[in-house]
Amino acid sequence: MLDIAREVFEGAGYQVEYLNVSWARALQMARDGLLDAVVGAFVTDAPDFVFPAEPQGRSKIAMYTPADSDWVYDGIESLHDQTVLAINGYSYSEQLDQYLARHAEEPTRVWMLAGPSPLNRAINLLDQHRADVFPEDVYVMTWAQRVNTDIHSLRQGGLLQKTDSYIAFSPSNARSAELAEMLSRGTRELRENGRMAQILSAYGLSED
Asked: Are 170 and 33 in contact (CB under 8 A)?
């Protein structure tokens, strides 16, 4: 998704700089006007942000487990005997968000992760059988396991939901609406001229 931003904004004369911080901190920094946008947001993540009309991606959230697990996601009720990892500040789905909030103080049911590299930590915790389930975007997990060849493969225990994902702009920046419109137009052009497919294929991904 960052490549999409660079294609659109650098082509218009802007400089795109990426800062790797925790998701919760990124949202707060954008609200405080210290960042212009966040990458990979759902509308439920940050409803006060300015979203482009055209999504930059389509997120599929899968429920990942250790490779030798036979657990299958069958609705929120199927989580009752599982330890679920989640990243602080993330939104997954309305039902799962409510479940995580309800059990946030019960470490045998919900384990919230923070810091700049929560994905790697989650993968390691599953691999070590210290937790049972971790919801994550299929694109993100596919790429993470592709570049980290020293980690064991995880297993998909079912699909949580599909939803549009965006580069969302700071609610405190007066130019956010203008930037969102520019990104919408640029994203649409990238899809129409085939450049989007080329960007994704470099990561072994597609929009299907």
From this structure: yes
CA distances from 92 to 7, 61, 62, 95 (A): 28, 7, 10, 8
Residue 205 has pLDDT above 80, yes or no: no
Contact criterion met (CB below 8 Å) for 151 and 126: no
Whether residues 63 and 138 fall in one domain:
yes
Residues 68 and 130 both lie in one domain: yes
For the record, the structure tokens of 42 come out as 């759902």
Specify if 207 maps to a domain: no
pLDDT of residue 208: 66
Task: Quote the tokens at residue 150.
Answer: 């020293």
**pLDDT digits 0-9 by tens, 112-168:** 998 878 998 999 999 999 999 999 999 889 888 887 777 778 999 999 999 999 999
- Helix (H) or strand (E) segment spanning residue 162: strand 155-169
Supply the range of the domain harboring residue 151: 59-162
Interhelix angle for 118-127 vs 138-147, to 10°? 80
